[in-house]
Every structure is written in structure tokens, then in C-alpha cells.
Amino acid sequence: MKQIILSVVCLLIGIASLALGFIFPSYGTRYGPFGKGTLSVNINHPAYLMPAVYKVYENPEALNGRYYLFKMLINNNGTGLIHDAKVSYQIPGFIDWTDLDTIPVLHPGQNAVVKCYPRFKDDIAEKTTESQETVNIKITYDDNRTLDEAYSFKMEGRNRFVYTDIAQQEALNDTDWCDNEPLLACFVTPDDPIIKYYAQQIQEKLMKGEEAGASQKPELALKFLKELYEATYLSHMVYSSTEDTQLNTGDITSVAQGIRLPREVVTGNTGLCVELSLLYASVLKAAGLHAFICLIPGHAYPVVEVGGQDIAIEATGIGGEGLGGRVDADAALKRGMEELKEFGEKRDQGDTGYTCLDIDALQAAGIVPMELKDDDYLRKKVDDIAATFNTESEAPPQTQQVAQQGDDTSNTSGDSGGAGLAESYDGDISFNYPDGWGRFNHPLPGFPFLLSEITSTDGRSAINVVAVRGASQSSQAIEYIRRVIATAGRRMVYKFASSSNGFDYYEGITAVNGVDWDWLGVFRNNDDGVVGLMVGGAGRTTFQTNAQLYNQILSTAH
After folding, report:
1. Phi then psi for 37, rounded to 5 degrees?
2. 16 Cβ contact list (under 8 Å, min separation 6)
3. Measured on CA atoms in the order 482, 484, 487, 489, is the torsion positive or negative?
4. Per the CB 3.0–4.6 Å rule, which of 149, 317, 396, 534 could disulfide with 328?
5. Domain 423-555 in CATH 3.40.1000.10
């Protein structure tokens, strides 16, 4: 009897389910007879966006699509089907509500991935300040059901470049610390009307109409490279720094550097090594030439390739007041070729701190520059600058080297040096310094490389004695120092000046609590690393006033 009753019940349930399928055709397919789908999402997104690279963000093919606005994992955690899950998003003030993918069906336990590559308007390249923005996401499904999500991120200004988005604990080497370096190609702007106009002025006034790129002759490419250097030299362009800050977002710690656009370097008549390299690459490409940028620890320089020949130039040879002497184009070219030779040797040794950006290849791969508008005011500034190209009476001076201007400043024999250097420092590196200056050993525990700090009585001049254990060359040591102090919110820019008597000479600026300290430094190898001393003053006036004293101190180093 019980078996008969059970059979009847099962038959009735089957008939009822079949009837529901006829009466409500979507019932069985959407929910199943006893359940429905439940939607959940997991959103992965970057902590910041850089307006300068907005065209990379919109391109799923660029760099294997790694630069997205967000990647969302959609799950069906319910017991029934989910139909027509449509994803939309907006960034208020930047992007209106935009539809992404529609997922036709999600079965119970099934998931799907949706990536968003945002299409910003070109005017985002005019955003010069940073801000906190919001991404709103809406998922509609099963006709009238919705799920709303939102998250915030930091929108940088167009002149801010963040060097990595790899978590600090995962960044193991130079490649990881500079993971975003290929994106520097977005700052190479050969189609910028201002850069085109600047390149045209060089062609007409310095090249006398010769077309370097059209002929693809190495001798014309070399001439154009030298005339580009001459253009920056004659306009009295100076080497100067921009602001470096530390970016801390979640588990990411990175240096965020202010980078002037090539048009800003030209019209502002100033630039840092990487900015000068970006300018050179922009002008070289505008002239039809194949440009590269070599990046080494703490420095960058431009290269042009033509006819299978690479030609490099040290763009920072224009120097600047308080940063060492200026050198002519031949000397800058000689130094550039020396750097290129060293670059090849380091790359062959597997040094990951030495990388090269092939601008043509990167831009062909989708790492393209921002769109920039023409500007009559900037064109007028280019006209004013181009007028200096006719200053033929100004002959470039002979190459000058920091701390090596005559017998008084090139002595490294360890004697007393200049007058008044009555005190002596004896250690891994030894030198003399003025009587009355105060000495503090290991003054900053967070900076293990800083052995001693010696300061003047007025506190406006200082000597830092440093040692970087395990470093094999001065460039590694000084770049390590720059990275460490960057984590404390200080910024440092520097450049190599020369080598003599076993010492490498550097010059630079370090910003401490809003004050720029101009300094000169000498470094050399010892048994377990690199040692050196850096001497300078707070502000340009202090540096200029005491430049002879600083050189005297350096001359006693041994």
C-alpha cells in the first residue's frame, strides 16, 4: 500500500512540474523546480591610474592586457541558473555609464571573468592634479535583479609616473622595482604639434634643411643628434630635478616621479635626465629616426639607431649652474658612447638594472602617447628659443669636470688640502674638514649606509660619509642610497660627472624637508663594497658661496 501511495505522489509531482513548465516556460530553465541563482563578485583593481597612459588602459592588446581598470570574477553561488548578467560601469566626471560584457547563462557553481578597459576622453591628458575617484559597477540579471558595487582609486596627474605596481614584498630586483618602465614610451610625443614645430626649427635653422630621417644616412643622423644637443645648449637649457615622492597604496610601495612632458622641457628650458631622454626620443621620432632610451641605475640617456649603428649622447652635458660645468656636443657624444659601451657589458653580465626602451617597438605594441593640442602661446615660446639657435658667436666651452679644476681641487693624495681644513676623518674613506664643524656618527638608524654626518656651525653645509656593503660599483651604491631615502619621503637626483685617481665623481640635489641640498660626491670601491662622501649646502646660494670649500674637502679624500 505504501509503495502505491509513494508512486502516486511522485507521479503528481512530475505532472505538476510539467504543468508549471507549460504555464511558466522560463520557470524550469531559470530557477529549476526548487531554487534560483545567487550572484557574488570579487573585484581586482589597481590602486592608481596615470592619465598619461590612458590609451594603454583602453587597449586589451597592450602589454598582454595587464593594465585594466578592473577585473571581476562573477560567481553563481545559488542552486538555479542566472541569465543575461550584464555588467556596466561609470567613473563620475570621466566616463558615463558604459556596458561591458553580457553573460548569457551561469549555471550553479559556475563563474565568469569580466575585464574592463576604460575609454577615457583625450582631455584627461590635461589633468595636472591628483584626486580620489570612484568606479561604480552595476550588474543586472534575470530581467530585474541588480547587484551594485563600487570602489575608489587614486587618479594621478598627467606628470606623475609610478615605477611599479608590484607589492613591496614581491619586488625582488631592479626589474620589479621598475616594472612600469615600458610605459615611459607614453611620454614620447613625436606627434605633439609643439614638438613637431620644435623639430622643424632645428631642421631649418641648424640642419639647414637637411632631412636626417628621410635619408637614413648615419652621418646625417649623427649630425641631427648633435644639432639637437646644440639646440638645448644654445637656449641655455639647464639640468634640473622634479619632485619624487613615495607612493604607498595597500601593499604597494613605489617611487612616484614628476615627469615633465617633452613640450614642457622645451618651453620651460629645463629637464632631468629621463625628461631630456624623452625629449630627444620625441624629436628624433618626429624627424623620422629610430629612437631608444637606455635606463641604468639612477640615470637615462638617449640613443638613435640608423643603418644598424647605435649612437648615444649624454643629454645632461648641458649642465647647469651649481651642477658642474657644461660640455660641448663632441664631449657629450663621447661620454654617451662610453655609457653605451658600458651598457652592453652590463647587459651581457645579466645586470637587470640596465634596460633599453625601443620606442618604435613599444608604441607599435600599443604603448602610445597621449593626444596633445596645439597651443599658440607655446609656439611663440618655441620661436623665442629658436632665435637663440642663431647665436653663432657663443662658442661652447671646453669640457669641465666637477672637482677637477686645477691642482687645488684634483688632489687625492690625502694631504691637508685647502686652508682651514684642520680636522680629519679616518675610516673606510678619510678626508679633512674645517675646524669647528660638528661630527655625528650613525645619526639616522633608518639609513644604515650613513656612517657619519659632519655639519657646519650654521647648519647650512654638511658632509655625509657613506658605505654600501656588497655594492660592486659606485652607480649601484648611489642608486641604493636614492631608493632608501625615497622610502622616507626624500628625493634625490644625481648624475655621474667623471672618474679620476680611483674615484668616481657625482653631483646632485637631495630634497630634505622642503629644502634642496646641492652636493658633490666622490665614491670608490673598498674590500667589501663602496664608500664615499657627499658634501654640499642648503640652497643654491649656499652651494655657490662655498663651492671652493666643498671641492677642497673632496680633494683630500683618500
Report:
1. -75, 150
2. none
3. negative
4. 396
5. yes
